[in-house]
Amino acid sequence: MTAQPEQKQQHEPRTGESSTLEAVRLRRVNHWLAQGLGGELADLYIDSRERSAAEAHRSRSRQDFLNRLTGDIRRPGFAMVIAETDHLVGCAFGFPVRSDGFWWLGFDGALPHSIEQLTASGGVFAITDTLIRPQDQGVGRRLQERLLSDHQASLGATLADPDDHPTLASLRSWGWLDAGEIWRPMSAALLRVLVLPLGERTAARLDDLTHDARTRWPE
Questions:
Q1: Burial classification of residue 23, based on how many CB atoms lie within 10 Å of its CB (0-12 exposed, 13-18 middle, 19 or more buried)
Q2: Which of 18, 160, 162, 192 stands 20 to 30 A from 168 (CA)?
Q3: Topology annotation, domain 7-216
């Protein structure tokens, strides 16, 4: 697999977005290039964290991030999209969720039937991480949309620390819905699960989830 040609994104800046986003190019990179970008991605990871005292204490170290990135790169179907101008601006990466539903192991309660069906059909793509600096929020949404559209996914899925309020607020503002919580033994953490429906048909199937999310997770 080779890197895809760079694409300059025509983008009307939203309120609060930097006008420099008009110059941002999105580019899909293969696993070899992703591995070579490890140092720059780790720098971006550190810069992307909201650095309150409590959050700084909880955040993973640079090496932890690199170890996790290496593990994800080895997964079947791994994909990454980067955003760049004259330097690296952001990235999003992940992999397809297996149809056997193994990714959902540890989900608290019964997995919603609509999500179970989409998983079985191979239509779910897990976004492991979206790295952007706080001032470049508009780039994050565009990276996710490109990553998911490249894989013709019906549903995006991601995990977030329930105490990471800035990340949760950003994801919700981009259209992600709260789906529940999941226990990950490797990190000994209970994480919030969010999903992003792609297309009207998928959104309609998740109408019940939208109502439930508003009930369970009030702002």
A1: middle
A2: 18
A3: Aminopeptidase (3.40.630)
Tell me the angle at which helices 207-216 and 113-120 cross, rounded to the nearest 10 degrees. Answer: 130
Segments making up each domain of the chain, as ranges: 7-216
Q: How far is CA 83 from CA 35, 43, 91, 97, 210, in A?
A: 16, 15, 6, 24, 30
Counting beta carbons within 10 angstroms of the beta carbon of residue 137, is it exposed (0 to 12), middle (13 to 18) or buried (19 or more)? buried
Amino acid at 198: L
Q: Which two tokens mark 9?
A: 């994104």
Backbone dihedral angles phi then psi of residue 106, each to the nearest 5 degrees: 100, 0
Calpha distance 155→166 (Å, rounded): 22
Q: Is pLDDT above 80 for 215?
A: no
Residue among 80, 86, 40, 78 nearest 62 (CA)? 40
- Contact residues for 163 (Cβ-Cβ < 8 A; gap 6+): 54, 55, 58
pLDDT in tens, 120-157: 999 999 999 999 887 776 899 999 999 999 999 999 99
25-52 residue pLDDT tens:
999 999 999 999 999 999 999 888 754 3
Task: Please provide the average confidence, as pLDDT, over all residues in the chain.
Answer: 82
Kindly write down the DSSP assignment for every residue of 24-82, as one continuous string.
Answer: -EEEEE-HHHHHHTHHHHHHHHHHHS---HHHHHHSPPHHHHHHHHHHHHTSTT-EEEE
Q: Which is nearest to 60 in space by CA: 177, 187, 175?
A: 187
